[in-house]
Amino acid sequence: LVTSDLKFPRYITSYKDRVYLIDKGTDLFDRDHIGKGSLIEIQFDKNNKPNIKVILSNIQSPSGISIWISPQQVPHAFITTLGKVIRVKLNGQKGKYSTVINGIPYKGWHYVNSLKVFNNDLYVNVGSQSDHCENKLTNKNYCNEDKISALVRKYKIKANGSLSKNFQIIGHGLRNSMAMAVNPKTKILWQGENNWDNINLQLYNLNDEDYPVDEINVLSKKGHYGWPYCFGKGRKTPSFNKKCSNFIGSTYELPAHSAPLDFLFYDSNILSGELGSFGLLITLHGFRKNGQKVSYLSDGKLQTLVDLNQQKINRNGNIGRPVAMTKWKDSILVTDDWNHSLLIISN
Predict the structure, then answer these.
(1) DSSP 3-state helix, strand, coil percentages of the chain (rounded to 5)?
(2) Residue 69, pLDDT above cutoff 90
(3) What is the structure's pLDDT at 200?
(4) What does the mean pLDDT of the chain come to?
(5) Rounded to an integer, what distance in angstroms lies between the CA atom of residue 175 and that of residue 193?
């Protein structure tokens, strides 16, 4: 446990000797969207005690954060807020920011979004407006959210930190892409799919504890990745009658309701090489049996690194809810929103 003095920590990143995290201020079920969030900077003293400083406050429902380095080597943070993306110059004047994207759909289920910077590309998640398109157009086998939400946008970052006016949709049919990371070897975005609840109400021979599976999708092709028509590697959704061969199936299936919220590719420089030479770290935030873990995918096999329910550091009962990660020296910093905490996993 690094600190439990946070309110509702979400996504986290680091640059040189500083850590930056988003504190939403209130939990995800507080949908009044009042500006209670903040951008926090953490520096550690020689005894590894965290010094916590708020550098931007009164942000409306912030969630994702990712750092871009300008051609002049100045760090900037891109942050998702309610319907917007803002940019903060991290060594600039406290409290100053610029809005770089307006008008991101946020009505409905998934009003908090994530983003990731890779080189001069900015990837932005636009989550679906419903759970499983239950309000689809009457008498039509078609979801009316298609190509509006449930997709990932890609913007180009200009030298001055502004964004290209136009964006590409690099994948749609993606219910809620909170976990995203670019594979540094292939330069392709990997996406974590959080699927819906209560499938047993649609199809009685499927157990809601085990279906629908969550997913890892490798967005190597521009196209439709299934939601809400199909899930996993090609299983049909009960509410629709579509051929799953018409969609791109998942690369890997994750346990149902495990809720992947963040990805972090690692190499042998992390945890003294304990996890091998290359792989993917995953936070599983779900409150059911398959969640509450930090896991890793190596050679196609998913393994548990830390089960937070087995740790005696939780503030709110027995449940640990990991959200996001960043590399810190050879260790991993992890936010836990349920316990208002920042954790460190070290060898």
Answers:
(1) 5, 40, 55
(2) yes
(3) 54
(4) 89
(5) 6
